[in-house]
């Protein structure tokens, strides 16, 4: 089977799955596998007190608004944190939120848009092209639809379309979901 045919079939399946969910924005489950997140990360995540939505709110409060483009749980350091990225005033603010207390860890750092690599700049262009929902809203809807908890969410580009890509953990099992109106 040619690569073009496989890609077309994959997106036809993606459209069918998304349409069956009955929402104004398209949802699709891309994969369900334990390879998305390490078992150590899953254990630490299960014990965390702060949710991704709470981490987003804490980061936005510190960064004085802006568009959240990424939140990722990380337990590789001394204590678990949510790594967050917020786009505001043509720059990305990167910071960490403690996964137990919800407090900012350190001051974070600001990276001017011009200093970002091409992939990051391309994805940021999607902040304007994805007006249907914020990352916060995508996290909320994903958690409500799956009855799970989001461990990571980010603005991404798939096949030239800007979408939100989320990993939701339910019953100890991670699932990758994509959210956006860009499957045409």
State the gist of this model:
This protein has 184 residues and is α+β, with helices and mostly antiparallel strands.
Can you walk me through this structure?
With 184 residues, this protein is an alpha+beta fold. The chain has one domain: Nuclear Transport Factor 2, Chain: A, CATH 3.10.450. The protein is built from five helices and eight strands, in the order αβααββββααβββ. It has an eight-stranded antiparallel β-sheet with strand order 1-8-7-6-2-3-4-5. It is globular. Mean pLDDT is 77; it is low at 1-24.
What Rg, in angstroms, do the CA atoms define? 17 Å
Distance between the amino and carboxyl termini = 22 Å
Flag low-confidence runs: 1-24
Major β-sheet annotation: 8 strands, antiparallel
Q: What share of residues are in beta strands?
A: 35-45%
What is the average per-residue confidence, as pLDDT, rounded to a whole number? Answer: 77
The succession of helices and strands, N to C, reads HEHHEEEEHHEEE
Number of helices: 5
> How many beta strands in the DSSP annotation?
8
Q: What is the correct CATH architecture?
A: Roll
Instruction: Strand order, main sheet: write it out.
Output: 1-8-7-6-2-3-4-5
Write the SSE topology.
Layout: H1 3-20, E1 26-32, H2 39-47, H3 52-63, E2 67-74, E3 81-88, E4 91-98, E5 104-112, H4 118-129, H5 135-146, E6 149-158, E7 161-170, E8 173-180
Antiparallel strand pairs: 1-8, 2-3, 2-6, 3-4, 4-5, 6-7, 7-8
């Amino acid at each position: 089977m040619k690569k073009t045919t496989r890609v077309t079939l994959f997106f036809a399946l993606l459209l069918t799955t998304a349409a069956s969910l009955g929402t104004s924005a398209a949802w699709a489950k891309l994969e369900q596998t334990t390879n998305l997140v390490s078992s150590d990360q899953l254990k630490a995540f299960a014990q965390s007190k702060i949710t991704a939505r709470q981490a987003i709110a804490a980061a936005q409060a510190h960064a004085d608004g802006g568009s959240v483009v990424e939140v990722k749980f990380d337990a590789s350091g001394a204590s678990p944190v949510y790594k967050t990225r917020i786009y505001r005033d043509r720059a990305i603010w990167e910071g960490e939120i403690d996964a137990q207390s919800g407090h900012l860890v350190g001051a974070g750092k600001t990276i001017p848009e011009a200093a970002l690599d091409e992939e990051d700049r391309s994805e940021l262009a999607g902040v304007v092209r994805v007006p249907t929902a914020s990352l916060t809203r995508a996290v909320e809807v994903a958690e409500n639809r799956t009855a799970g908890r989001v461990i990571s969410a980010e603005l991404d580009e798939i096949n030239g379309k800007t979408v939100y890509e989320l990993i939701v953990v339910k019953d100890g099992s991670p699932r990758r979901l994509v959210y956006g109106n860009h499957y045409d």
